[in-house]
Amino acid sequence: MNFIEFINKYLGKKVDFDGAFGAQCVDLFRQYVKEVLEIREHTGAVEGARDLYINYSKMPLEQKYFTTENTITARYGDVAVWDRTATNRYGHVAIFLCWVNADKMLVFEQDGCRQDGAKLALRDKHNCLGLLRRRK
């Protein structure tokens, strides 16, 4: 399955990959990894989305399948990871489509707080820790 097929399949739907805590942003990430990137191994449990980037060096399977990249090098299909905020201690993860301008990116995401399903959204690059890119 390619990324556009993935978006068409899940747009507006709640994705609960692990069956815990409802439809979280990490659930959409896990589904993307399985269906689009075709990685069958689970890369490891995290407390929050930010841990995918912050704890990268402690996650051997994540290191096996992904490299970390700077946001400025973002490419279609990369996984963007944001740090915690005052209102969200877990951070956020979304799949990058394209830059809209110097500060805004178009992503495919799911909001675990709102529980409103997968959607296309504009996200500010501010507070973005970096990217995970599938190793070739």
3D architecture notes:
The chain has helices at 3-10, 25-35, 51-54, 60-65; strands at residues 66-69, 79-82, 92-99, 104-110, 118-124, 128-134. By secondary structure, it is of the alpha+beta class. The chain has a single domain, classed as endopeptidase domain like (from Nostoc punctiforme) (endopeptidase fold (from Nostoc punctiforme), Alpha-Beta Complex). Strands 1-6-2-3-4-5 form a 6-stranded antiparallel sheet. The model has no long low-confidence stretch (mean pLDDT 95).
Write the layout of secondary structure elements.
Elements (H helix, E strand, L loop, with lengths): L2 H8 L14 H11 L15 H4 L5 H6 E4 L9 E4 L9 E8 L4 E7 L7 E7 L3 E7 L2
Antiparallel strand pairs: 1-6, 2-3, 2-6, 3-4, 4-5
Describe the structure using short key phrases.
about 140 residues, endopeptidase fold (from Nostoc punctiforme), globular, 6-stranded antiparallel sheet, alpha+beta
Find the structural class using helix and strand composition. Answer: alpha+beta
- Indicate the radius of gyration in whole angstroms: 13 Å
Strand tally: 6
Briefly note the CATH topology name. endopeptidase fold (from Nostoc punctiforme)
Oligomer status: single chain
The helix/strand series, from N terminus to C terminus, equals HHHHEEEEEE
- Can you count the helices? 4
Average of pLDDT: 95
Any low-confidence stretches, pLDDT <50, length ≥5?
none
